[in-house]
Amino acid sequence: MIWSFDIIILIFLVITAVIALTVKDLLASSMVLGIYSFLICILWAEMGAVDVAFTEAAVGAGVSTVIMIATVFQTARKSKD
Amino acid sequence: MDFFYQTFIAKFNYWIYVILMMIGLFAMIAKNNLIKKLVGMCIFQTAIILFYVSIGVKQDARIPILTKDEVPHGGHYTTEHHDGHKDHKADQERPYIDAKTITNPIPHVLMLTAIVVGVSTLGVALAIAQKVHLHYGSLEEDEILAKIPLGNDG
Amino acid sequence: MKPMKLAALLTVIATGGLLLYATSDLPDWGDPLSPANAGDLSTHYIQDSRDDTEVPNLVTAVLADYRGYDTMFETVVIFVAGLGILSILGQGKRVEPLAEPVASEGNRERDMITITTCRLVVPIIQIFALYVIAHGHYSPGGGFQGGVMLGASFILIALTSGLPDALKRMSQERAIFLAGLGVLIYAGTGLLCMALGRNFLDYEILHKVLGGTGVKARYDSMLIVEIGVAFTVMAIMFIIYAVLSSKGRMRGGL
Neighbouring chains of A at 3+ CB pairs within 8 Å? Predict the structure, then answer.
């Protein structure tokens, strides 16, 4: 574990989390959540949790982004807040 | 440098997890859009998983996979014992493993399953959101509440 | 909506403040001597699992052997979540996969380049997924990751060639059958151990069936269990996508 690397990713995580919640376009929100998942995946690989990082790369950044976008396409794309 | 580590770095990541968790909690309570609430739920969940994984981190430790020297025969070192007893002769050839040098695997195991279960529960939540959209034509909380008639429990 | 937001903000600040105060009691980050890291249990897993199971990847050893009961019910949770999605959004009756696209839907212009590229890529993804499942003993990977990747390959077919094309390869009935089969493989391995006179999921006794010693039986049955997990995860991931992308109608799609 390299703590300087770690701190940079943690700050980026907070930024992406805030962006994902403030963006009014739900498609953009889903995509930013995918970026958030990738950052978390890097963080776990850096912490030595390789299995968890692999799972997050496949599940969080892959499948969950896709099903979220599928729902956004089937319902409404604009959000009020 | 040691003082800097002790006061700032040693607890910094826990602060970030608390901040992420609170961002998620705020979104789940205060956001108007149902999808935004689910995004908040995802952030809350990953904050908890991050906390668990970081509990198992050891400084200067390697990943929890043993090397070829430590497990030389990899599942095929068996001699002709059919009673399930360990082969002590094979144990003696193997180097000693210092537990301090390997990351703690237990949090990884617990959280690995939690991630996959998390995506299937997210799927259930999204299915409910689509059903709500089918019935009320909207994902905004105030519009849905305005369409539910008051005064009966149906 | 305004007072609700204020109340939420106050709740979050109070909870967050208390949690931030509580972090001072947590062990330093990366401390090898913290209670969680220096405890007997994790030391036992790290030092003794190679003698018990011969699996170099400690995460796989703990996941499929020591904590197999936990993993089995996580698999059941995934299975139940898939059934829940089908019962929430599904049509309730048997849906036939359509042989040819209906005129109103699925008749969209499909890009030949993406279809051809994905047709070439999908077999490679599936072979890599099988490698991930089979090589989970030695490298990061295992049933969950490989299953998600197999499911993702079917999702890729559905994204490029349309949902009807993917449903021809993996229909709803087949997906549910495979999901149930995965849970059955896992639980059946445990029940076989019981039938041979040991505890549930105590793989050591399976050397009577699989041959070799008790250690080798634990090594082999971990692979069997991971294959069961992969079946369930693959089928449920595809069901989740198929239902959510078509509002439960199982046709049309994105």
Answer: B, C
Residue C7 shares a structural domain with residue C101: no
Q: Shortest Cα distance from B26 to chain C (angstroms)?
A: 6
Residue A40 lies in a domain: yes
Would you state the pLDDT for residue C90? 79
In a domain, C203, yes or no: yes
Share of chain C above pLDDT 70, in %: 91
Could you list the pLDDT tens digit for every one of the 154 residues in chain B?
677 666 677 788 889 999 999 999 999 999 999 999 999 999 999 999 999 998 888 888 888 999 888 887 654 544 444 455 555 445 556 788 888 889 999 999 999 989 999 999 999 999 999 999 998 988 898 899 898 887 655 4
Alpha-carbon distance of C16 to C20, in angstroms, equals 6
C89 lies in the same domain as C3:
no
- ipTM of the prediction: 0.93
Three-class SS state of C180: helix
The shortest CB-CB distance from A58 to any of C60, C149, C240 is to C149
Q: What is the pLDDT of residue C253?
A: 65
Of A3, A54, A63, the CB nearest to C140: A54
Tokens of B88: 């002590």
Is residue B87 assigned to a domain? no
Tokens (6 digits) for A39: 């950052």
Count how many domains chain B has. Answer: 1
Q: Between C2-22 and B10-30, two packed helices, what is the crossing angle to 10 degrees?
A: 160
- Looking at chain B, the whole-number percentage of residues with pLDDT higher than 70 is 79
Single out the residue of B140, B124, B34, B119 nearest to residue C248, CA to CA. B124
d(CA C248, CA C251): 8
Which residue, A63, A70, A5, is CA-closest to A34? Answer: A63
C249: pLDDT strictly greater than 90: no
Provide the mean pLDDT of chain C.
87
Burial of C2 (0-12, 13-18, 19+ CB in 10 A): exposed
CA distance B93 to B73: 11
DSSP B34-102: HHHHHHHHHHHHHHHHHHHHHHT--TT-B-SB--TTTSSSTT----S--S----HHHHHHSPPPPGGGB
In chain B, the residue whose alpha carbon lies closest to the alpha carbon of A62 is: B119
pLDDT in tens, A23-78: 999 999 999 999 999 999 999 998 889 999 999 999 988 899 999 999 999 888 88
B131 neighbourhood in chain C, CB within 8 Å: 88-89
Q: For chain C, positions 164-223, list CB contacts with chain A under 8 A.
A: none
Residue A38, domain member (yes or no) = yes
Q: Report the number of distinct structural domains present in chain A.
A: 1
**Cβ of A5 under 8 Å from any chain C Cβ?**
no
